[in-house]
Amino acid sequence: MKWIKKLFGKKENSSEEAGLKEINFEDLPAWLDSRSQKISSRVEKDVSGLLRELDASLLALKESNSRLAEARVEGDFDIRAVKRAKSNRENVTKQVTMLIDKVRVQENRDFKALESFYGAATQNLNTCLENMNRSFRYTRVVFPEESKGVSESLASVGRVFNALKEVILVNKKEMDAIEAANSVIKEINELSASIAAGEQELESRNRRIQILRAEASEASQALKDFKKGAVWQKLQNLEAEFSAAGEKLRKAEAGLNSLILPLSGHLSRIKKLHESGRYTLKPEVKRQLDICLEDPVKVDPSFFPELQKVFEDNALDMQTQKKEKALSQVKAAITGFPERKKEYLEALKEFETKKAEIEGFDTGKLVELERKEAELLSRAHLLEDDIEDSEKKLAALKEELEQKKENLLADVSSIDSNVKINF
């Protein structure tokens, strides 16, 4: 066919297209639109005759279908064959009518509309042929001429569709490339916008980090200055005095306990004898004995002379050697305990005094400076972590952007290999 030869032989070569062309990225959509319009115009021109032919073929199909529906039986046929032919004729004419109703000649003749029309029309034609194929075998036997007319009309419609398919195939590759390029352009614009927003956010975060670092440096310097002042020195001295008082208290308590601990085994023995009823202690002596075992520093010094009497009592069931040793330890306690308890109480008083002074010391300024420095540094670190994550995301977006640019170059090259895109 002449028009098919024309389509396959048609190639536009302007002086502009003969050499390399450079197109800015922002001008690419307009260039693609121009190419698309040219193809649609060319297709519209090429298919106008085909669509007129299709209209005529559909009209002829309608007429041949009507002739088949109205045909009378001519000839000598078995009554069963006639009955089958008539019932199947109804299906054939029904399917053809449905096809004619569904296939409407396309008024919108740009490429996409034409492609959509072709897809739907050929599907309807195939459905019609599939649904009527078996029935047609029976119909042809009794109504051969009318069936032949329908068959030829369907073939005519099919030929128009095949020709339409050739027009679509000739232009489809470039139209698909144009559509793909437009889609990639949209993706590139979205990625570029995301990258720009990300870079702007990174700059903002870096500025915030610089501000936070500067404020943290000021807070750190204020803390250093505070630690050089009289208040800090006083606190340091107080803490040293408190530590020394604590050490003094520990030694005093250890000295006090050194007199009591050797007696603990004997005291436990006496407590068991008392509780078992084999020896009876005076109530006050029993109370002081319990205190001595639980918290030696709180025992009354008067307890030890009473304890000496207990060890000297012949009624106490204890070996002589152990009694003598216990009496020696008790006498040492009688002699040394009052002085050592006095030292302990003085050390405890001094410790409590220093503790109260530290607890009453106003450390608000110090705490505030330390808190402020820590908070500023923490915020800066969090922003740095966010920046690290954002930089990774930006790197991924930029990598994706480069891939999209390569895809766009491939699409445009398939349209016109002489085109170079300036991004």
TrEMBL record:
Q: Which residues form a coiled coil?
A: 195-255, 366-418
Instruction: Tell me the keywords, alphabetical order.
Output: Coiled coil
Superkingdom of the source species:
Archaea
Stated name of the protein: Cell surface protein
Species of provenance? Methanosarcina flavescens
